[in-house]
Write a structure and sequence with these properties.
The complex is a heterodimer of chains A (440) and B (263).
Chain A (H helix, E strand, L loop, with lengths): L7 H7 L11 H16 L16 H4 L27 E6 L2 E2 L5 E2 L6 E5 H15 L10 H8 L5 E5 L4 E12 L5 E2 L2 E6 L4 E10 L6 E10 L4 E8 L6 E10 L4 E8 L4 E10 L5 E10 L4 E10 L5 E10 L4 E10 L7 E10 L5 E10 L5 E9 L3 H8 L5 H17 L5 H17 L7
Parallel strand pairs in A: 1-6, 5-8, 6-9, 7-10, 8-10, 9-11, 10-12, 11-13, 12-14, 13-15, 14-16, 15-17, 16-18, 17-19, 18-20, 19-21
Antiparallel strand pairs in A: 1-2, 1-3, 4-5
Helix pairs in contact in A: 2-5, 6-7, 7-8
Chain B lengths: L7 E12 L2 E12 L3 E5 L6 H9 L4 E10 L2 E2 L5 H7 L1 E4 L6 E5 H15 L7 H14 L10 E2 L5 H15 L3 E5 L7 H14 L5 E5 L13 E6 L2 E6 L1 H10 L2 H13 L1
Parallel strand pairs in B: 3-10, 3-11, 6-9, 9-10
Antiparallel strand pairs in B: 1-2, 1-4, 4-5, 7-8, 11-12
Helix pairs in contact in B: 5-6
The chains are: A alpha/beta (440), B alpha/beta (263).
């Protein structure tokens, strides 16, 4: 591969990908080559692109990032505060490189594979080939193309037919160095009737600027059920761009809880495709940002078959001069009759300089469906405030409590106790730190 | 219980208030002494709820005239939270739902805030749990309501019980219960009324704002006031409520108009 990219910035980002060793799997080399070709052909999105209208990533393009050459030394104690005791499996990637000494696998029943892609390829090569880089389309998505061009390893979770695995698999991506670009990759496959829970967790030991460009693919077989918890708690100077593609077979369920706290600029695209009749998706999200942060969430709930159900509650709490973006598209294809979809987007502005762009989009091509959506942007509810104050709570305490509650409603839905407690503590600290004077 | 020498808890003199620029209260006079139960009755739109909310400091109501003294001190100099701490309690007609705030956490925060202002001991979560469960028994309330969000998804009766539970915890000097009987079936009404009766003491007082006489079968008032057009136009004893029940409000209103003409 010696084709130069049309865009010098993309060219610089791609430099390292040409030095990657070839994989033993020919199909993977071919897919990487395709992705590289697409990355070369695409341009960096700007606010002139409809999909990036509200999100200016110019600050990202002013910095140069390269993949880590060597794994940084990280001790288990460094990541102690991120460990989820409920998880039997922990896969840790440091600056994009798998860290076996920090990872832990115990008590995994037969039929469950939770490992690196490289390790999983030994037993599940054909399955991986069938799905990896097949669902997260990169033809028109520069960042997915970049990630795929760099695809060498990642996390793999597979559960065989009719096997239910309740304990969460914790995939922890740790950033430790500035100016590093990492390309986290995750593939989850639940076969017919299988169940599992995956926690994708992006954390940082470094407060400098680095770039995480992540891609996740989740395949949910017929009657299978996947819970996907996603925590983005990057450094406040980091850039985080991620794409998640979910494919649902007949009567499959996908449940997602996304919490966005970190990064200077973050963008998360979640595309859920209902490819089988009767499949259901429940998507909850919370972005809690302040200072000069920008958090953009784009979701697509696409119903291609009848009897699908989707429910979404996305909330943002925006303080300081931060900027939240929500673009939630519900697409009901022709023939997807009896689709039942609801979407709610609620945004809480804590300061006069906080900003939110909310864009719910319904596109319906079937005539017998039930679809509702709503978006609100506002401040705290005056009746709730008065109620709390009439019980003796001070104005500041009442405001903090309501702000906390606004976020806690989403966090409470995460079925992992230790995460709920830690995240609620974070929300409590962050909402109490917000400037009260700016709220009037 | 009327005791003419009891301390004046509340003195309302010529109170006027507006909502969105419209005058709703047009000069209310009312004195409540310790130990007394007052019922404020009246047709819909007479200003009863406005009166209750104005006393508690609801921001939608602007006081434009008159004065209100709580134990001799200017009530309107206090913020809503200061009024609550000083012993004013408003039982809401429509208790507000607050998803995401646990009822137990809220009750404890409220209780401890008021306790600390009054120089009394605060309770830690375990101590408070025991304490609040005892109070809940008096109201025949399922302890499961502690684990839910404040009023979130509660039925009408459950919300009203939760209000009286808060009254029991905060031990107000002056409780103003706004349409506490609305939305209650007869069993729930009896439980809530018994709860209120159990909280009546010689040093506190209750003002019941109600449209119907029904509640007054269970909580017997010392005084019944009829409100109309933003004023109290008639005051009597508990028998006045029974008369209103059988004859309606029109005769009181007509009588007031005639006396106003001849005056």
């Amino acid at each position: 591969m010696t084709i130069a990219a049309t865009h010098p910035y993309i060219e610089a980002l791609l430099k390292g990908s040409r030095e990657l060793p070839q994989s033993a799997a020919g199909w993977l080399n071919a897919r990487r080559a395709q992705a590289l070709e697409r990355a070369n052909a695409l341009t960096v999105p700007t606010t002139r692109d409809e999909e990036w209208r509200f999100t200016d990533i110019t600050p990202l393009t002013r910095l140069h990032f390269q993949p880590a050459q060597v794994a940084a030394r990280v001790a288990l104690s460094d990541i102690g505060r991120f460990i989820v005791p409920e998880a039997a499996v922990r896969l840790v990637f440091v600056d994009g490189i798998f860290a076996p000494e920090l990872s832990a696998v115990s008590d995994v029943p037969a039929g469950v594979q939770a490992s690196t892609l490289a390790e999983g390829a030994k037993a599940h090569g054909a399955l991986i080939e069938q799905h990896l880089a097949r669902h997260a389309a990169f033809e028109h998505n520069l960042f997915a193309a970049l990630n795929t061009a760099y695809l060498r390893d990642g996390a793999l979770v597979t559960v065989v037919k009719n096997q239910a695995y309740a304990a969460p698999v914790h995939v922890l991506f740790v950033a430790t160095q500035k100016e590093i670009a990492a390309y986290p990759r995750c593939l989850v496959i639940a076969e017919t009737g299988a169940e599992c829970m995956v926690i994708e967790d992006f954390v940082s030991l470094e407060d400098g600027a680095y770039f995480n460009n992540a891609v996740t693919e989740i395949v949910v077989g017929a009657d299978a059920r996947v819970r996907h918890v996603r925590l983005q708690r990057e450094s406040l100077n980091a850039f985080h761009i991620a794409h998640c593609a979910v494919a649902l077979d007949k009567d499959a369920s996908y449940l997602s809880n996304t919490v966005t706290l970190g990064a200077r600029i973050s963008r998360y695209d979640l595309n859920v495709e209902q490819n089988g009749e009767g499949a259901a998706m429940k998507i909850d999200g919370l972005a809690l940002i302040s200072g000069r942060q920008l958090a953009d969430t784009h979701t697509l709930m696409s119903h291609a078959r009848p009897n699908g159900r989707s429910a979404q509650l996305h909330k943002t709490i925006v303080g300081g001069a931060a900027h939240a973006v929500f673009n939630g598209k519900v697409f009901v294809h022709e023939g997807a009759q009896l689709t039942d979809s609801s979407q709610q987007n609620r945004n809480l502005l804590l300061s006069g300089r906080a900003h939110v762009d909310a864009k719910p989009q319904l596109e319906i091509f079937a005539d017998d469906v039930k679809c509702s959506h709503g978006a609100t942007v506002g401040q705290l509810d005056a009746e709730q405030l008065f109620y709390l104050k009439s019980r003796g709570l001070s104005d500041a305490t009442a405001r903090n409590l309501l702000t906390y509650a606004f976020g806690a409603e989403i966090i409470d839905r995460i079925p992992v106790r230790s995460l709920v407690e830690r995240l609620e503590q974070t929300v409590l600290e962050q909402t109490q730190a917000a400037e009260p004077g700016a709220r009037a | 219980m009327i005791n003419a020498n009891a301390k004046k808890l509340l003195e309302v003199r010529g109170l006027k208030a507006t909502v969105a620029g419209v005058e709703i209260l047009k000069g209310i006079n009312l004195t409540v002494r310790a130990g007394e139960v007052h019922a404020v009755m009246g047709p819909n739109g007479s200003g009863k709820s406005t009166f209750a909310k104005a006393l508690a400091g609801h921001p939608a109501y602007t006081v434009t005239g008159g004065e209100v003294l709580l134990e001799g001190k200017d009530l309107f100099a206090l913020s809503p939270e200061e009024r609550a701490r000083a012993g004013v309690f408003l039982g809401f007609q429509y208790p507000v739902e607050i998803p995401g705030v646990s009822n137990s956490g809220f009750l404890r925060l409220s209780y401890n805030t008021v306790q600390s202002v009054r120089g009394r001991d605060e309770l830690d979560p375990l101590e408070f749990d025991d304490f609040v469960r005892e109070k809940m028994k008096l109201l025949d309330m399922d302890p499961g309501f502690l684990d839910r969000s404040v009023n979130d998804g509660f039925s009408g009766g459950e919300k009203k019980r939760n209000e009286i539970l808060q009254m029991a915890l905060l031990e107000p000097k002056l409780a103003i219960l706004d349409e506490t009987d609305s939305g209650l079936d007869i069993d729930a009404l009896r439980v809530v009324a018994n709860g209120v009766n159990g909280l009546l003491k010689p040093d506190n007082a209750v003002v019941l704002v109600t449209h119907y006489q029904r509640l007054l079968n269970y909580i017997v008032p010392d005084y019944v006031h009829v409100m109309e057009g933003g004023r109290i136009i008639k005051t009597g004893g508990k028998e006045l409520a029974l008369e209103l029940e059988t004859r309606g409000y029109d005769w009181v209103v007509d009588g007031y108009k005639k006396s106003a003409v001849t005056a």
